[in-house]
Design a protein that fits this description.
alpha/beta; 11 helices; globular
């Protein structure tokens, strides 16, 4: 156990959800695990809230394997028999993690809001007792390399009552947001801010956001408006009111004919984490010199691309995973200055993770689902 420098003693064990391998919900096991000991330059965090993301489900399913070519929902049905007749994919091979083989058994959880309760050797003592957020994406070989690792995918994450993290990736935050609200921030908002930064979105540009009601989509909507863009948001009609409240300039149904409604060459940037069959339309919608940025493919990773659209219009396609150095400090500043706000769909006790993931996959929500380890 680490030396306890907080105001109360630390337990020897903690509640954790351990993902045991690729597969269905049976791979999510509630276990008692030893409280981690922070190593050199690390801090121990009491997890107060942990947001839930597509990536945790994708990792459990082995969806990142190139052998899986369908949407996340369909891949899930393979393991959980929700749509057995339609499911055609086989269970994922060992290399089903986003960088190859996932280090099972693994405590997932990419988002973390918590309190620093103990310090490892040479960790930043000013963090002790602070409410903090953890930078989910860590540039493991420095900012000059695109090599990166993710908490909850490459090493144990926040689906537990405690987590140990390098102090350099821990940021104190001073705001009136609740723990649940802060726990919704890191992955979705970090991913969205990074996408817009790498796509060089400027004030006055027109941006089309697919899947605008999801965690990344709703974050991208707010962050694009913050940059002064005109935002066209695509989501089911039942979710339009919530997106209008976030500032969307135009709302479009996800089943609509976007080319007919918006016209050829009508947008400067497409934020697309949906992909699937509608991808060719995005190429038609982009104006000359336009960009498409993506960091997901929930409707299916295999798309059709007419290269003539790409080169004749001088388009740019951007894939983004590794975060820029400024991405997370920017988010902390936006929160502390009141420039963005959280959008919580629901919160659940950590032990109800299966229910939470089932509801998440139904896609009937707007915003983020958050798990509470101490509820």
């Amino acid at each position: 156990m680490p030396t306890d420098t907080s105001t109360s003693s630390l337990p020897d064990s903690m509640l954790a959800i351990v993902t045991t391998g690729h597969g269905g919900y049976e791979c999510l096991e509630t276990q008692q695990r030893p409280v981690p000991t922070p190593g050199e330059g690390e801090v121990l965090i009491k997890v107060l809230a942990a947001g839930m993301n597509n990536t945790e489900i994708n990792t459990r399913l082995g969806w990142y394997s190139s052998t899986i070519t369908t949407a996340t929902q369909k891949a899930s049905s393979v393991h959980d028999n929700a749509d057995a007749d339609a499911a055609t994919d086989k269970p994922a091979p060992p290399e089903g993690g986003w960088k190859g083989e996932t280090p099972f058994p693994l405590i997932q959880g990419t988002d973390c809001c918590g309190e620093v309760v103990a310090l490892g050797p040479n960790a930043d003592a000013s963090l002790l007792g602070k409410r903090v957020l953890v930078r989910s994406c860590m540039r493991s070989e420095g900012w000059d390399s695109l090599e990166n690792e993710w908490m909850g995918s490459d090493f144990d994450g926040a689906f537990a009552q405690f987590v140990s993290v390098r102090a350099s990736e821990v940021f104190a935050v001073d705001c009136d947001w609740s723990d649940v609200e802060l726990g919704s921030l890191p992955c979705a908002y970090g991913t969205a801010e990074n996408m817009l930064e790498q796509a060089e979105l400027k004030a006055g540009e027109r941006v089309l956001i697919l899947g605008a009601s999801g965690g990344v989509g709703s974050a991208a909507l707010q962050l694009a408006k913050r940059r002064g863009a005109t935002v066209y948001a695509v989501a089911g009609v039942a979710k339009h009111e919530a997106l209008a409240d976030l500032g969307a300039d135009r709302l479009l149904d996800r089943k609509a004919d976007l080319l007919e409604l918006l016209g050829h060459e009508s947008v400067d940037l497409v934020v697309d984490n949906v992909a699937g069959d509608n991808f060719p339309v995005m190429m038609k919608l982009l104006a000359r010199g336009g960009r498409l940025v993506t960091t997901g493919a929930i409707a299916g990773p295999m798309v059709t691309l007419d290269l003539r659209d790409l080169y004749l219009k001088n388009l740019r396609l951007l894939g983004t995973t590794a975060w820029c150095e400024a991405t997370f400090p920017n988010l902390i500043r936006y929160v502390e200055q009141g420039e963005i706000r959280p959008l919580i769909a629901a919160s659940f006790p950590l032990t109800e993770i299966v229910t939470a993931q089932q509801q998440f996959l139904s896609k009937g929500h707007v915003g983020k689902f958050v798990l509470e380890p101490w509820a």
